[in-house]
Structure formats: structure tokens, C-alpha cells
TrEMBL record:
It comes from Endosaccharibacter trunci. This is S-formylglutathione hydrolase. Its EC number is 3.1.2.12. One of its GO terms (molecular function) is S-formylglutathione hydrolase activity. SUPFAM superfamilies: alpha/beta-Hydrolases. It comes from the Bacteria. It catalyses: S-formylglutathione + H2O = formate + glutathione + H(+). Keywords: Hydrolase, Serine esterase. It is an enzyme of class 3 (hydrolase). Signal peptide: none annotated. Belongs to the esterase D family. The gene is fghA. Serine hydrolase involved in the detoxification of formaldehyde.
């Protein structure tokens, strides 16, 4: 692992690293904020999964999480959203919603994406092991959140691993990718036509099929241009109501899909995670 930058911030350190990933077969870059802490302490960790077209840098530069992470003693990790580099296939038309910057936090099964697009394995297995080896984290206290496609990642990985993630939240998530154009394009490209496989990567379908977490926090801007076509939080509300999952879904007036929205509610999400991570 190579440290690309290390900056003191809020009494802790904001670090950006690059490493060779076995999961993706590429170099991957991620950022980690380590808050001030006592020597030898192991801290709870919140994973932030980013949205379409992002890298680790969007939330690192615009997410405004450091002050509250420093206050609460949370490590904050931001992975990239896809493999990148020579030989990594992209959308044939270079579109932002598939291929580079759009890994959808799943392991592809279709050629040519199967070779590198293994973001689920990367985020669930490889990166936690690396982070635990290199930073003072306590992997028995993990929370997961994310924005848009990353909200989809947080919800699906959280619902599929309720014993690992003690807190799950999302900002403007894609809640039912099988039912919306972004998800349908990505799932057809990465997973093919097997709808049963799609359901394992779809938060609403996972809940319909029995996945459970005690509680979810979701914020959504009501001026988000993707709200009615791509995000459709009402589908999550219905699924959670049926399943008895305590969903706090807050429609935030006037907010769009941007990091102005994400950063405005970041404090609330971090406090919500800290409460559940102890
Ligand atoms: N207009 C955007 C569409 C994609 C988009 O809105 N991405 C969201 C996540 S789904 C984002 O966070 N973009 C980067 C940013 O705002 O920093 C683009 O082409 O980049």
C-alpha cells in the first residue's frame, strides 16, 4: 500500500492511499479519515460508498464529515466506485452510468466485466482486511452509508450482512435498481438476464425476500432531479412498512442530488451511526 497524501485535519489525519487489489486486478485508491484517539485504541468505522461518476475524492473534498468524525471518534473510509486503468472495460459510449465510475457494488458475472468489476468483494472483504491491518479500526463496530448508487451499495451490503453492519443509512439512494433505468442498464450489463440474481442486489427485493435490519435512516432531497425516475424512495417505504423495518425517511425540502445536500445531513448520519456503534 502506498500513501498518496496525509494531512492533519481536526486533530486527526486525512489519508489517501493506493494499493494493488486482488479483487479487481487493478490499482485502487481510497481515502481514510482517522480521528484523534488514544494510543492503542481501536475505533468504529463508517464506510461511505459514493455515487455515479465519483471517486473517493468527491466525498473527501465535499462531504464535510471530518469535524463530526473527530468529535465522535469515527474512522471514515471512502472507496472508489469502480476499477480503473488499462484494460478495464467501460461503457461502449462512455456514458457516466455504466462502467468506469459505476461499479454498482456487485461482482459482475458477464464478459468482459467479470474480470475486473468485483466491487462487492472489494468493499466487503479485501478493503476491510487492509484497513484493519493499516489503521486503528475495530471491525466489530462497522456502519455503512452512501450516496445514490452508493446508497444502493450501502442498503444492499447492509441488508445482506446484518451481523457485520450495525448501522445502515443512505443519502438519496437507488432503492430498487431492478425497477429503474440506471439499475436495469447496470444489472443487464454486469449480471445478464437472470432476474433472481438481480434481486440479490436490489434493496427493495432483498427486503421482500426476507432480509432484515433493525433500522434505516434515509435522507432524500425533494428537488433532486433523479427522484421520481431513478430513486423512488416510496418503494423502500412500502417494503419497510411490510417488513416491520424501522425506516426513518426524511424528504428534505429544496435539496437536490448534490454534495450540498449530502454534506447538509452528514452530521445527522454520523451521529446516528455513532449511537449504534457504541
Ligand atoms: N450530472 C452528473 C450525473 C451523475 C451524478 O449526478 N452523480 C452524482 C452521484 S449519482 C454525484 O455525486 N456526482 C459528483 C458530484 O456531485 O461531486 C455527471 O454527469 O457527473
Amino acid at each position: 500500500m502506498e500513501t498518496l497524501s496525509r494531512e492533519r485535519a481536526h486533530g486527526g489525519e486525512q489519508v489517501v492511499c493506493r494499493h494493488r487489489s486482488e479483487s479487481t486486478g487493478t490499482e485502487m485508491v481510497f481515502s481514510v479519515f482517522v480521528p484523534p484517539h488514544a494510543p492503542g485504541a481501536r475505533l468504529p468505522v463508517v464506510w461511505f460508498l459514493s455515487g455515479l461518476s465519483c471517486t473517493h475524492a468527491n466525498v473527501t473534498e465535499k462531504g464535510e464529515y471530518r469535524r463530526v468524525c473527530a468529535e465522535l471518534g469515527l474512522v471514515f473510509v471512502a472507496p472508489d466506485t469502480s476499477p480503473r486503468g488499462e484494460g478495464v472495460p467501460d461503457d461502449p459510449d462512455g456514458a457516466y452510468d455504466f462502467g468506469l465510475g459505476a461499479g454498482f457494488y456487485l461482482d459482475a458475472v458477464r464478459a468482459p466485466f467479470v474480470e475486473h468489476y468485483r466491487m462487492r468483494r472489494y468493499v466487503l472483504d479485501e478493503l476491510p482486511a487492509l484497513i484493519a491491518a493499516e489503521f486503528p479500526v475495530d471491525l466489530s463496530r462497522q456502519g455503512i452509508t452512501g450516496h445514490s448508487m452508493g446508497g444502493h451499495g450501502a442498503l444492499t451490503l447492509g441488508l445482506s450482512n446484518p451481523n457485520r453492519f450495525r448501522a445502515v443509512s443512505a443519502f438519496a439512494p437507488i432503492v430498487a435498481p431492478s425497477q429503474v433505468p440506471w439499475g436495469q442498464k447496470a444489472f443487464a450489463g454486469y449480471l445478464g438476464s437472470d432476474r433472481a440474481l438481480w434481486r440479490r442486489h436490489d434493496a427493495v427485493a432483498l427486503i421482500e425476500d426476507g432480509a432484515r435490519v433493525p433500522a434505516l435512516l434515509v435522507d432524500q432531497g425533494d428537488a433532486d432531479p433523479f427522484l421520481t425516475e431513478q430513486l423512488r424512495p416510496e418503494l423502500l417505504r412500502e417494503a419497510c412498512a411490510q417488513a416491520g423495518i424501522a425506516l426513518t425517511l426524511r424528504l428534505q425540502p429544496g435539496y437536490t442530488h448534490s454534495y450540498y445536500f449530502v454534506s447538509s445531513f452528514m452530521d445527522d448520519h454520523l451521529r446516528w451511526h455513532a449511537q449504534r456503534l457504541g
